[in-house]
Amino acid sequence: MTQLNATTLQTILHGAVETTAPAIQLAVRRRGRLIFSGAYGRLDPDTRQHPTRRDTLFDIASLTKLFIVTTLMTLTEAKLLTLDQPVSTVLAELNETRPIQPYGDPLHPGEWVTVSDDTKRVNAAEITFRHLLTHTSGLPAWRPLYQQPSAEAARRMALTTFFSYPTGSRVVYSDIGLILLGIAIERTTGLRLDAAVRERVTAPLGLHHTRYLPLESPPTQDELDHIAPTEFCRWRNRRIVGAVHDENAYRLGGVAGHAGIFSTAEDIAAFGQMTLDGGGELLSTETVSEMRRLQTAGLGTRRGLGFLLWSADPEASSNPFSQSTFGHTGFTGTSLWMDPGRDLVVALLTNEVYRGRKNRKIGALRVAVHRAVVAAGAPGTAGTPDTDRL
Length: 390
Prior knowledge:
CATH architecture of the largest domain: 3-Layer(aba) Sandwich
Distance between the termini: 20 Å
CATH topology of the largest domain: Beta-lactamase
Mean pLDDT: 94
Number of helices: 11
CATH class of the largest domain: Alpha Beta
Oligomer: single chain
Structural class: alpha+beta
Low-confidence stretches: 378-390
Largest sheet: 7 strands, antiparallel
């Protein structure tokens, strides 16, 4: 990056720790090389203790889904599953017709979301892995699994849930769908989900900082001092640090298909590089091309398999990049985008949810950072990694 534009980017990030997120990491790769890596802010903004480091772990929230999708795609390459195979062949619980109903709004307790008033029932036995991967299954976006008395009861609720619209008729981003993918991976591999992800994705890629933090193996105090805290959780009555922010994932034991992985921006960028490179030694080029291909034409939201695709909305975090861009965002304030047109990977990790779920500012920060990265990434300007931090 040019020094002038790198300075502009750093100014945005330094300012953001005061206004948006107390802890931030950014890693940028171009043409296969790490050209920028910065850590900003403090893990305890009140006492200004524990500066954010490049190896600080962040709860990556829904970026977890990309690791689950990639794990599933390794199973398709091993011919253990196919994309258009009914999920019921692995999850026998999906063997019946179910009603279409409203579901509770996770961001507005007491309110309900009605996706479709269609009176037809959905045949759960007909939904495929492709439906789950493209968020077109008909499953609701969310259910209050955390209210169940145990992890097993929460899994059972996910497996037996009602639907919210006819399968294939629209895109509804669904945590429930990815939870079911995680359970399907466990039943196919015979491994717990964290072990399957480690064996099939993170270990082969050398992502040593990327892992679930299961509740039966709580982090040590030294580890807690290097994990970015998230929100004060009223349900758990404490500031969350060293445990997954998402309540449903917490009830599921900290290991789930929709959330639960912690990582660093450099690790996340390295994972993104694999997808930008066409799979590397992990996946075939054909598999990654299918993951990046538009799967939801005519349904409004542009999605691939697991990936969200470029949006024409100027407020979308993908918009500053080229139209071949693909990636994902996470509720805690994280994002990963790959821009093939610029041979660019941008991983932005924050704990923006630290200050709560109202008046969120992460969308504007993502767009500002991405515009600055694009402005700084002119051909021929890539240099050594910039390790600026407070």
